[in-house]
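Morning - manganese (II) ion inputs below, output right after.
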Amino acid sequence: MIIQLKKSVSNEQAKQLAAAVNAFHIYNENHVLITGSGTKELPALLEDVSDKYWVFPNDMQLASKVYQANKRTVNFGNVSIGGTTNHTVLIGGPCSVESEDQIRSSAELLVNLGLSTLRGGCYKPRTSPYSFQGLGLEGLKLLAKMREEFGLNVITEARDATHIDEIIEYTDIIQVGAKAMYDQGILRACAKTNKPVLIKRGFGTTLQEFVQAAEFVLSGGNENVVLCERGIRTFETGTRFTLDLCGVAWLQEYTNLPIILDPSHAIGYAYGVPVLAKACVAMGIDGLLIETHPNPKVALSDASQQLTYPQFEQLHHDLQKVAASVGFKMV
Ligand code: PEP
Ligand code: MN
């Protein structure tokens, strides 16, 4: 249940009421208390102090359209995403930050196309301990340098909760990866910041569980949450994962969170990224994440799925038309 308290309720009083009914307390324009979905009746204590309340059939609460019908607008570094912006933010960059020359070349590519947001992994959640694990802090410093030199927003992944402070210091947006989205330590640490958080769907995660991961961050006080569909694991082995566009339609219908799609990790092969990206943009989505590398063959991670720069430029060109056909603009 979500309970919106009357304007006359003070911060102190709201905190006491939250403790008394064992609820989360956040303040957006009003003091809001959030209890588990098991609460069906307004607690007696809150009768005189509440303006309005919502009852939910499950723990999709703050993220649900029942609570807030309009899509949320999230500040995504220096652009906004979602809401009524009707634009699709094209996020580009390599899977991993590998060197200064490599990440600068990606930054230049984006700036020349008029794009705003550079992504590169520094703490890589690899399946094998023997694979490249990322440059860590050195990589974050390179991203910060690109932010400084080119005025780009930068986004990178937190592999565990101890990375959050560093990521906040050097970048603009925190990515919670598919393997990390169940990590309560990371989600709770993200909730304590006001940085935008991009949560990727785990490959065996139901839509309900996916949204509940977002609820951890929202109920903890950080309203800047964006969801990212990046493919789920099915019986199919011909492609790396299966991009769940049905799931995207479900999220658009039932949640108020901006949605980003990542066809690169979904298919796992560069040949399919452009056609899938067009299908994604045709759904009227808030963002698209595409991996690109100056020389994909020698990339230290996800080599088979990264586009070359000419392929990325061509895709950017083609996507403008698709976006326009659904009333969106690529930014
Ligand atoms: C990535 O974004 O490079 C990554 C590791 O993705 P995912 O968490 O979706 O596997
Ligand atoms: Mn990758």
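Note: The chain is about 30% helix and 20% strand.

O.
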